[in-house]
């Protein structure tokens, strides 16, 4: 039985069962929204507000550190094959071509 079918009453289902299905859908959607809200608030309190203490490491907070680390990773020599980017997801390409070719 499809709760979104507008012809549910014509197929022999009582109007009462249709109302109960709509009520069930309302509670399920409400509970899903509430659980997402609780998860978001918990994430903000724990990760951003640091209610259990702690600090954000400077390696995560400082852009200069990230750029220096990325530069170091890109400078590592490759011995097995053509040079590849160490973090291909951020580059959106997988093989680095030299400027000479």
Automatic annotation (TrEMBL):
Protein name (record): ATOZI1
InterPro entries assigned to the protein according to its UniProt record, in alphabetical order: DUF1138 (IPR009515)
């Amino acid at each position: 039985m499809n709760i979104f079918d507008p012809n549910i009453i014509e197929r022999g289902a009582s109007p009462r069962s249709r109302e109960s299905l709509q009520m069930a859908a309302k509670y399920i959607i409400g509970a899903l929204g509430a659980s997402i809200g609780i998860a978001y608030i918990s994430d903000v309190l724990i990760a951003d507000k640091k209610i259990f203490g702690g600090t954000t490491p400077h390696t995560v907070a400082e852009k200069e550190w990230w750029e220096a680390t990325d530069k170091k990773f890109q400078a590592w020599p490759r011995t097995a094959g053509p040079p590849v980017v160490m973090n291909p997801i951020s580059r959106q390409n997988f093989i680095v071509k030299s400027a000479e070719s």
